[in-house]
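#onboarding

Welcome to the new folks! Below is a worked example of what a typical request in this channel looks like: someone posts a single protein sequence, and someone else replies with the predicted structure as tokens. Don't worry about understanding the tokens yet, we'll cover that in week two.

Example request:
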Amino acid sequence: MNSNIKRLYELSNKSHRRVIGLMSGTSIDGLDVVDCICYGTGIDTKIEILHFETVAYQEDFKKEIKSIFSKRAVDLQKVCLLNSWVAEHHANIIIDCLKKWKVESDSIDLIASHGQTIYHAPKNLHGLDNFSNATLQIGDGDHLAVKTGIITISDFRQKHIAAGGEGAPLAVYGDYFLFSKKGENRILLNIGGIANFTKLPGDLNRSEVLSTDTGPGNTLMDAYIQENFEEKYFDDQSTIASKGIINEALLTSLKKNIFFEKKFPKTTGPELFNLSYIEEAKLAAGIPTLSHEDMMATLNRFSADTIVQAIIACTKGWDDIKIYCSGGGIHNTLLIRNIQEQLPNVGFSTTETIGIDPNAKEAVLFAVLANETVAGENNSIGNMETGHPLVKMGKISFPN
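Example response:
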């Protein structure tokens, strides 16, 4: 038997697997690296986090990614070069983390790599009759596997699309396995560049589980800050937005997009919600100029309102809802307050209270997907009526 296939077979039969989960989001601020143990599979999955760190990207890395990120016209040679370059960069981060944590690479069973999204093109965005949903992440799994010597599972989103999904959000699978609780209606809200949530009914009815993007989380606010404030990447502690006044005309204009009228679940990205989107909304509202403070206050409220409206629309008939938050947006105090004030009867906390560091959650979820790829049985979740195909995702790359 091929030694790699034998190794994979052995891993699939273990009671647990030690996985390095990687997540690099659309904010392109750093790589989340989690070292965790996955016990069991499916609804019986349990996670033990051993180490976690977010490794900030250097300026040259950010610059290279942004040169091709979310752009329809790019240098194709640059895309090819960065596919392996990103993987090598991520491999070096893994090697450095293992050294720092004093962990031998031989003790790691799998790497689960999300890669770096450079373009997301669901049909609801591109609107081309002859083409279906599409998405592209770079950071090749073979390069990761060869450089680290660890079997790597990557490129998760392609199987989701091949099976009829939009390639996002994928959190629904791990959220259902890890966080469903009988007797409690839960919303797992993740606020990254794009905000999304998973709906987990307290009766554990799989057919009602749903995961969807809601629209912008941090992406518009971060883009505006980076465009207008030198050496700033985000509105730290909501300092700028907190000094502003919401411009109601602009807020109304920002909400006038067909994306918000489409049925759930749905996906989107910075391909839609970007600086051009802001300028077009300003033009439509007849607002040529606005102070930075008022603009940030309005963008903050825009993200909050679209998150709240989506949650309300998807939880009709629910009582005693608990929302568990994760992602970088949890540190935006004004954004969280704007959400909470509109949902006064809903309990709020972070995923820390249910056992997962909210900063590590997305990296953990990809570790769970990799665990399912290798060892999952027929107890997965899937319901095409809610946009979630029954599928196990990820491509397998061997070290040699």
